[in-house]
Specification:
Structural class: mainly alpha
Largest sheet: none
Helix content: over 70%
Number of strands: 0
Order of helices and strands: HHHHH
Number of domains: 1
Shape: elongated
Low-confidence stretches: none
Strand content: under 5%
Radius of gyration: 16 Å
């Protein structure tokens, strides 16, 4: 996991029509699987691929079908985000870092909130390393 500028994340999300969110999730799953004992299942990467397909279909389909794909997209993305949040929490527990995660902020701000938490964790780890 690395620190990332949240403003740039928002910009990339807008430019890529939210496909950046799935790329961010894919990278964080890979990063977290290297750091925690309880790995994030491969099924979540498959869900990400389905999520990307649903975004593309939303962009190219008619209005009625795009509503269905939007519901699928939101549901899958929330599942993925919460699994990543739980993996970050597991990392914090393993490293004895006490950080609170809000369920509501996770839903509302998704990857931006989780990246904020990752940045907070990295700042905490850097402060500990500096004091040693």
């Amino acid at each position: 996991m690395k620190k990332t500028n949240i403003f740039l994340m928002i910009l990339f999300t807008i430019i890529t029509l939210s496909l950046y969110n799935q790329i961010w999730c894919w990278k964080r799953i890979a990063d977290l699987n290297k750091l925690i004992d309880k790995k994030i299942s491969f099924i979540f990467k498959i869900l990400l691929i389905i999520n990307i397909i649903s975004i593309i279909l939303i962009l190219i389909s008619n209005e009625n079908i795009s509503k269905l794909f939007l519901i699928i997209d939101v549901y899958l993305f929330i599942l993925i985000i919460f699994r990543i949040k739980n993996a970050i929490r597991e990392y914090c527990i393993e490293k004895d870092i006490d950080i609170y995660f809000s369920k509501w902020l996770t839903v509302i701000f998704s990857i931006f909130y989780l990246q904020f938490k990752i940045n907070t964790i990295k700042n905490f780890e850097a402060a500990i390393n500096d004091s040693i």
